[in-house]
Amino acid sequence: MTKKPFIIPVFLPQEGCPHACVFCNQRAATGIRDPSPLEPEGVRAAVEEFSRHRGPGRERAEIAFYGGNFLGLPEERVRALLAAAALCVKEGLADGIRISTRPDTLIPARLDLLSGFPVRCIETGAQSLDDAVLAACGRGHSAADVEKAAAEVKARGMALGIHLMAGLPAETRDSAGASARKTAELRPSFVRIHPTLVLLGSGLEALWRRGEYEALSLAEAVFRVRIMYETLAAAQIPVARMGLFSPEPGSVLAGPEHPAFGHLVMSAVFLEKARALLQSAGVKGGEAAFRVHPRDVSNLRGQANQNLRTLSGDFGLAGVRVIPDPALSPGELALSPA
Ligand code: SF4
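Above: inputs. Below: predicted complex with iron/sulfur cluster.
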């Protein structure tokens, strides 16, 4: 598996967006309140500033235009920002560029603007592949647009990241699972999954205040994202992130906000794997021992060892041992003979 690049984010909050999607308030999400657009000359300063956080062993770095609809910007601005980033790449400050843009901008006429620039990856917010959910969110594009966009990006040889959300208006457990299945069929390079939060100043805030939107509980959000994760993992699609970058303090009014959301989901994934192994081995009582890749020890244990207590209670176990085993692959779980 290719190593994840070091991402140097350059935020363009809601720039190029045709309208505000119901769940979105990039100013609340990124904390950037200055409404003046970033000048191309500011790209270098942003890159130099953020590169100070680059740790050892992160060889590849990509300048990422995030927070807006990059290919919805005027042509001149697209070229000027890309040229500024490309200069940083040429000078060795980074190795490539990635952009975040809406699926309905991933059409040949807009993608052609990227020609000649070192754009390695495109991230696009599908959010859902259920047209009813997309309409309820005021996205202004359909699931078919996402399918066409994926084909266009892949035909141009760039990596494709698809963002999905859980808990959007009109979404059900079934539609969340179906969105993950359809996304897997598009064979993206990776997927990010975000739980829906009610952000201050978003359209969702108004719906929530009128009682027309109910946020998912943390448990339900973990359930839905687990199903989505398992669907993608079964199709060998990497899930790069589950959860949101820390929003501005005070900007989340409701919803399943948790600082370790991804860990909660992975703990739920491992709890289900462990249950399935114990059930198929007919274990009842005694002790159980599991082997996992060292990276997954805390995923198997769960938050404050909750998974081990749950398994002990459900299967009448006197104890559960967790054995780190580097011979296993990340994500694998094996029941050791007692
Ligand atoms: S979700 Fe994306 S397209 Fe919609 S308003 Fe936010 S940044 Fe713009």
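The pocket of iron/sulfur cluster is lined by residues 14, 17, 20-21, 24, 26, 68-69, 102, 125 (CB under 6 Å).
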